[in-house]
Every structure is written in structure tokens, then in C-alpha cells.
């Protein structure tokens, strides 16, 4: 089973979300499908089911490895680098 090599380096406590929704979707006039929180910096982006995949774009631009769901009652995490749930 593959494991995440990045989770131990994440800040504690988690960063505060920098917004309540995806600011890139707001700026572009699109609707986010699901929100994701970057666990390195608090950036909020939309998921890969959204038209512009802003959470993934944030990872590709910054290299920040792990995000978690920013949806109510969800706390799962995903490592973009290791491609595993953590």
C-alpha cells in the first residue's frame, strides 16, 4: 500500500482558509463544484469536477502537496504527489 510522504511536514494547526469559496471561480464567473483546502497555505480551490480545476492548478503552480475537502462534514485528504488518500 502506498503512503504519503508529505503529511508529517504539514503545518499544525491547519492553515486558516483564505476564503469561503474558490476566488478563481469568482473572478472567472464560474461555479465551483466542490471546494478543496490547501493544507500548506489555506488556499481554497475547486475540485477536478469544476471547469477549471483550481485546486489542482494551485498544486501545479506551488508544489503544495496535500489538500483536504473543504465541504461540510468531510475531512478526507489527498496527496497530489503520492496520489493517495491520507
Could you characterize the architecture of this molecule?
It is a single chain. The protein has 86 residues and is an alpha+beta fold. The protein has a single domain, classed as Herpes Virus-1 (2-Layer Sandwich). Helices cover 17% and strands 19% of the residues. It contains two helices and five strands. The protein has a five-stranded antiparallel sheet.
Write a brief structural summary.
The chain has 86 residues and is an alpha+beta fold. The chain has one domain: Herpes Virus-1, CATH 3.30.40.10. It is 17% helix and 19% strand.
SS class: alpha+beta
- Strand percentage lies at 15-25%
Residue ranges: pLDDT <50 for 5 or more in a row?
none
Q: How would you sum up the global shape? A: globular
- Counting DSSP H or I runs of 4 or more residues, the number of helices is 2
CATH class: Alpha Beta
- Biggest sheet strand order reads 2-1-3-4-5
How far apart lie the N and C ends?
Answer: 12 Å
CATH-assigned homologous superfamily: Zinc/RING finger domain, C3HC4 (zinc finger)
Total strands: the figure is: 5
Radius of gyration: 12 Å
**Which H/E pattern describes the elements?**
HEEHEEE
CATH architecture annotation name: 2-Layer Sandwich
Question: What fold name goes in the CATH topology slot?
Answer: Herpes Virus-1
User: If you average the pLDDT, what whole number results?
Assistant: 94
Compute the number of structural domains.
1
| Most strands sheet | 5 strands, antiparallel
Please estimate the helix content: 10-25%
